[in-house]
Amino acid sequence: MNQPKIHFGLSIGITALFRRHRKITDDSMRGYLNWKFRLRKWLILFSILFWGVTFDAMACTCPPINAKSMRELARQQSQQTQVVFEGVVIRQKLQAGHARIPVNVFSITFRNTHRIVIVKVMRIYRGHLKQYVSIVTGYGDSDCGFDFETHHAYLIYANWIEHGRFLFTSICTGTAPIEHSGPELRYLRGEPASPEDQLNPEQYWARHEAQWYATLCGRVTKADGSPAENIDVEMWQIRSHWLPPYQAGDPNLSKPDGRYCIPLLRTGQYILTAEFDNFQQYTRWVAYYPGVMKYSKADKINIRAGSHLKRYNFTLQRQQLYTISFYIKSLDSKPLPYSNIGIAIDSPTRNALGYHEWHVLTGTGSNSFGLIPAGRYIVRTFIIPRPNNGTFPASILDWHMIKKTIILRSNATYHLVLKPISP
Question: What's the burial of 38, exposed, middle or buried (CB within 10 Å: 0-12/13-18/19+)?
């Protein structure tokens, strides 16, 4: 992973593009295929527009699927990891720091967090396991981390790390919910292949999409009643506050008449949002369903797999956006290892209409964030390990990192001071 060094002029456009493609990740085979094909288009665009520039966020990259049938895919997956088993998630927690992943896996956790998932082993197909195992995976926000749900059952493909202390899995290994793993389970159990096992992965998923997921459709309009075109309409799952919300959106944005349809919705409770950023005017059209501006007033929408919901129509409102700049220095003006210090700004709630970005400080200890709506934010600095070996200068531990709340009402500049831990 290259050290992120994107600066303000490019970060505005990049932020919007990553907001768009971050929503595509899914833990099912269809989600993986869908994501792979769409991401390829984004990467081509990035290569053309920003050749030679490193980004402050990167998405997960998985190797291509070469299997011609689900049976062949099941065989390939069974041979590519050290451990294969069925299990039920008992609990999970976030762990600070970067996950120590296998060297042959490309999976990054730019949030400097990863998950530890405790799983009860139900049936083993490969490897030797105790009744309970600890699995490491990414946070789950476009970092290859598999988005486990507590108390759900999964078919898990994993490799040992940390000298056998933990297992590692990701969305690239084949791990999936039990109910999505029919062909794999039949192969692992030595059962004859069914006719659908001979389908290629895309055909197989298309056949099962309607029963695995739900769809929600509607229409978005502006305050004057005109249709809102090219709006990013998304559903955000309501979960435990520390888990990343599952997200799904209309991959084609809203149509000229304002209509949209969101596929790939898992069973759960959601908040429906809509947003369009106008870079030239520094404004955006936004709303929570049913047309409100506060998260607390948004309707909660219950989704069940296999359902198709219609007529979720709502009106958007126009909102001004701003720029905020930060300058960081030490209390006694001693030099700081700026390349190992990041600065983040976060809305209090994590959803599509909130703002959640971070950058590495420049050589002068500064950086800027753009396209931010007015409101309350949490600003913090944090340590970033060296990308090549995960270490950082010992001197950085001499300083307290900053965490403070700010109220943004217009373009603003903040000068923040790192204080020494010992006087």
Answer: middle
